[in-house]
TrEMBL record:
Cellular component, GO annotation: plasma membrane
Domain of life: Eukaryota
Domain G-protein coupled receptors family 3 profile: 94-358
Key word NADP present: no
Subcellular location: Cell membrane
Any one Gene Ontology molecular-function term assigned to this protein's record: G protein-coupled receptor activity
Signal peptide: 1-24
Keyword Cell membrane: yes
Transmembrane regions: 94-118, 134-152, 164-189, 201-226, 253-276, 288-308, 320-343
Protein name: Vomeronasal type-2 receptor 26
Membrane topology: Multi-pass membrane protein
Record keywords, A-Z: Cell membrane, G-protein coupled receptor, Glycoprotein, Membrane, Receptor, Signal, Transducer, Transmembrane, Transmembrane helix
Main location per the UniProt record: membrane
Length: 364
């Protein structure tokens, strides 16, 4: 009897293995919900993937649940995980590289400043108002260092400080360049008896240009901060699955006014330097100023489309690059030719050389 029972059991097992399995009874993969097929039995269904940002309902495999705004599904769409927080930090390669470049250029500018202090009584430093040269070098140092304020996690205070600092410092730089250019014109007018501008030399106009131009920008920034100051916000739409911590400029109109005023100063400086580029070379640095303002304008003109076409931390990196490259352009174009003469051709940095040069110019 026992043998017969075992035989019957084996036959039943073989029969069970031959029973066909319905394809419709296969369970759906993770992240897919069941969708009933019209006109078919309840055991027949399609498996549809959950939409982007959704997970499968653990209590009902026929529907998906949307994750909260600050969370994102895992790879299997079973659980909502916190989104990654992104901002340009010192820990990543891009942030540390930009910070190092900023510090290096600041040290280089400080070296030029020290060189000009040491050689303050030489003709090439005294030409075109050495006090304005000192002020421009100090402004460039602050300009390089202000880019560091754009690195790190933004907060309300830093968002206000970094934009205002950037606007005021660069307005100070450009207004100083404008004052230097007008100084060249005034010097030439004082030596030319036929010049119509000779009567304006006594008014010492370049002294008032820097504080007046800088004060206008400061007033614009105060109005901006009072009406709609920049603030930090969490941008969840910039990149999928990432929360971008960035600065909202507050009033875009006032932000555009601040940038527009800086652009106006740069345009005036470029125009005046271009008109004065053919003055006598002994006291003339307007050729270098013209080229430096062309570099400055080119950087910021290309910055606008690049700024508008990037998102996330790349936007901040583009602005830092524009700050560094425009500041470096001013430093290299205006001061490196003078440093070249001071360090490598000191014979050209003497009163005798200038007197001999002036004599040749008069003969011509």
């Amino acid at each position: 009897m026992e043998a017969i029972s075992m035989f019957i059991l084996a036959v039943l097992m073989l029969e069970l293995q031959r029973i066909p399995v319905s394809v419709c009874s296969d369970p759906c993969s993770k992240g897919y919900r069941r969708a009933a097929i019209q006109g078919q039995k309840i055991c027949c269904f399609d498996c549809l993937p959950c939409s982007e940002g959704e997970i499968l309902n653990p209590k009902d495999d026929t529907e998906c649940l949307k994750c909260p705004a600050d969370k994102w599904p895992d790879s299997r769409k079973e659980e909502c995980l916190p989104k990654l927080i992104q901002f340009l930090s010192y820990e990543e390669t891009l942030g540390s590289a930009l910070a190092c470049i900023s510090v290096l250029f600041c040290l280089l500018t400080f070296s030029v400043f020290c060189l000009f202090i040491i050689k303050r009584n030489t003709p090439i430093v005294k030409a075109n108002n050495r006090d304005l040269s000192y002020l421009l070098l100090i402004s460039l140092m602050f300009g390089f260092m202000c880019s560091l304020a754009f690195i790190g996690r933004p907060n309300r205070i830093m968002c206000m400080i970094r934009q205002v600092m950037f606007a005021v410092i660069f307005s100070l730089c450009v207004s100083t360049i404008l004052a230097k250019t007008i100084t060249v014109i005034m010097i030439f007018s004082a030596t030319n008896p036929n010049s119509k501008l000779k009567t304006l030399v006594g008014f010492r106009i370049p002294i008032y240009i820097v504080p007046v131009c800088a004060m206008v920008q400061i007033i614009l920034c105060i109005v901006w901060l009072a009406q709609a100051a920049p603030f930090a916000e969490s941008n969840m739409a910039a990149e999928i699955g990432i929360i971008v911590i960035e600065c909202n400029e507050g009033s875009r109109v006032l932000f555009a006014c601040v940038l527009g005023y800086m652009g106006l100063l740069a345009s005036i400086s470029l125009f005046v330097a271009f008109l004065a580029r053919k003055l006598p070379d002994t006291f003339n640095e307007t050729k270098f100023i013209t080229f430096s303002m062309l570099v400055f304008a080119s950087v910021w003109v290309t910055f606008i489309p690049a700024y508008l076409s990037t998102m996330g931390k790349q936007t901040v990196a583009v602005e830092i690059f524009a700050i560094l490259s425009s500041s470096a352009g001013l430093l290299v174009c205006i001061f490196f030719p003078k440093c070249y003469i001071i360090l490598l051709h000191p014979e050209m940095n003497s009163r005798e050389y200038i007197t001999r040069r002036n004599g040749k110019n008069q003969e011509i």
